[in-house]
Design goal:
Largest sheet: 7 strands, mixed
CATH topology of the largest domain: FAD/NAD(P)-binding domain
Shape: globular
Helix content: 25-40%
Number of helices: 13
Number of domains: 3
Number of strands: 22
Bound molecules: flavin-adenine dinucleotide, adenosine monophosphate
CATH architecture of the largest domain: 3-Layer(bba) Sandwich
Structural class: alpha/beta
């Protein structure tokens, strides 16, 4: 007999699994379909984020940072650490244990919340029927009052550098190196390229990042991007801007990459090459020809502001739809859609989705950049505070970077918080909380911040917006 559900979710990444749990919590009979197999051939939940994205990259970033600190950062504290070595397979194995714990945790949450897991490939048919093809090829049809498509994304391939997962790898392959490459090339200076480049650079690889655009981190505030370029270059990352990769040749376990920049055609040879040029939506075999769901011109599933597709009762969320390809955006869309299906009037604030790059120092922001606001003709006041003036940062020997708060010159409402520095992601989240409640720079300035904390840098930057910072000389108002 055909199984019937109130909600069927296709894909158990941070979009899909969160949507499924929320729907079940709201009393809806819910199933979630997932096909991803781990290296033991078992279905693993959690999607890109838990298996080959956010979490594994952060595990390797944290391990490599500890190694780097032990080698370079202990002496200043009077700690002698001689003969520090890195066991790369052990580091990668620790990462895999974390993945196993987290993906197993999601399976546990499904059980606890009464979400039915359907293992296999899901395909939306006409009339909100969903075909599930199990790993052994058998199929079943389930019926749903509502369907949520959450099939995520995968790395973009470029013809000049075809991924073989041996010498030329994508982000997934770059999480699995079993030794440190002597020379590592990275195509793309986006979030993923910079994070993975940092991991292997800290462990001793000579890293060159080749980026087609002339501008570094174009989405970030220019002041922050400039500081990031300076800091990452000082750390040893060679970042070649305005350099477009046009070809590559693999020979004897090395790859020679051809690229063109202002000086003409160039070549560089690497032991490994990471292709990190972006991600594209996964819609292969997801929609039957008569499903009625349409794609936009870039191949994303077309949805409105509430994630409704062109078919009533069918929604799509996360990386497979427009907007930032971020786990927290996917999850919040999942919550919004589940709540709307349950009859609530949920909305999502797309203007306040924080962005984070987990380099060291971290780079994070929420809201608009100074350039965006000026481009829109908004008059702003800007306050900055350098971590070099923070007692807490000094105590931690981590004084690089700054906090920048941008407020509307007329209303004083905070329109952007941008940070490069220690715990930038956490600091920006404080800005996001304030901005969600319409905070002014003065409001932030009047709040009591614990001393000594890195958060005080946010407090001081907010005070600096109106010339009232205490621990730096304020910019004179013209
Ligand atoms: P996904 O996580 O891609 O999940 C989709 C799931 O659907 C997959 O498990 C897939 O197997 C399954 N699926 C697809 N089609 C079908 C089908 N037909 N039937 C059954 N199952 C199907 N984001 C952050 O916010 N912070 C970070 O620090 C961060 N770091 C990242 C680092 C790396 C290296 C990468 C690659 C990504 C990172 N991201 C990060 C991005 C983040 O992983 C994605 O934005 C997020 O996973 C998107 O969630 P999703 O649920 O939309 O899709
Ligand atoms: P993101 O989309 O943030 O992951 O970043 C991917 C980056 O890769 C972008 O900044 C692109 O400009 C860059 N990129 C794409 N194709 C090439 C190429 N052929 N050579 C160099 N950089 C590229």
């Amino acid at each position: 007999m055909t199984q019937k559900f109130d909600v069927v979710v296709i894909g158990a990444g941070p979009g899909g699994y969160v949507a499924a749990i929320k729907a079940a919590q709201l009393g809806l009979k819910t199933a979630c379909i997932e096909k991803y197999q781990d290296n033991q051939g078992k279905i693993a939940l959690g999607g890109t984020c838990l298996n080959v994205g956010c979490i594994p990259s952060k595990a390797l970033l944290d391990s490599s940072w500890k190694y780097h600190e032990a080698k370079e950062g202990f002496a200043i504290h009077g700690i002698e650490a001689k003969g520090v070595t890195i066991d790369v397979p052990a580091m990668v194995a620790r990462k895999n244990t974390i993945i196993k714990n987290l993906t197993g945790g999601v399976a546990g949450l499904f059980k606890a919340n009464g979400v039915t897991l359907l293992e296999g490939h899901g395909k939306l048919l006409a009339g909100k029927q969903v075909e599930v093809t199990a790993l052994d090829g058998t199929t079943q049809i389930v019926e749903a009052a509502n369907v949520i498509l959450a099939s995520g994304s995968k790395p973009v391939d470029i013809p000049p550098a075809p991924v073989d997962q041996d010498v030329i790898v994508d982000s997934t392959g770059a999480l699995e190196f079993q030794s440190v490459p002597k020379k590592l090339g990275v195509i793309g200076a986006g979030v993923i390229g910079l994070e993975l480049g940092s991991v292997w650079s800290r462990l001793g690889a000579e890293v060159t990042v080749i980026e087609a655009l002339e501008k570094f981190l174009p989405a970030a505030d220019e002041q922050i991007a400039k500081e990031a370029m300076k800091t990452l270059t000082k750390q040893g990352l060679k970042i070649r801007l305005g350099a477009r990769v046009t070809g590559s040749e693999v020979k004897k376990k090395q790859v020679t990459v051809t690229f063109t920049d202002a000086d003409g055609e160039q070549q560089m040879t690497f032991d490994k090459l990471i292709v990190a040029v972006g991600r594209r939506p996964v819609t292969t075999e997801l929609l039957a020809a008569d499903s009625g769901v349409t794609l936009d011109e870039r191949g994303f599933i077309y949805v409105d502001d509430q994630c409704a597709t062109s078919v009533p009762g069918v929604y799509a969320i996360g990386d497979v739809v427009r907007g930032a390809m971020l786990a927290h955006k996917a999850s919040e869309e999942g919550v919004m859609v589940a709540e709307r299906i349950a009859g609530h009037k949920a909305q999502m604030n797309y203007d306040l989705i924080p962005s984070v790059i987990y380099t060291h120092p971290e780079i994070a922001w929420v809201g608009k950049t100074e350039q965006q606001l000026k481009g829109e003709g908004v008059e702003v006041n800007v306050g900055t505070f350098p971590f070099a003036a923070s007692g807490r940062a000094m105590a931690a020997n981590d004084t690089g970077g700054l906090v920048k708060v941008i407020a509307d010159a007329k209303s004083d409402r905070v329109l952007g918080v941008h940070v490069i520095g220690p715990s930038a992601a956490e600091l920006v989240q404080q800005g996001a909380i304030g901005m969600e409640f319409g905070t002014s720079a003065e409001d932030l300035g009047m709040m009591v911040f614990s001393h000594p904390t890195l958060s005080e840098a946010l407090h001081e930057a907010a005070l600096a917006v109106n010339g009232g910072a205490i621990h730096i000389a304020n910019r004179k108002k013209r």
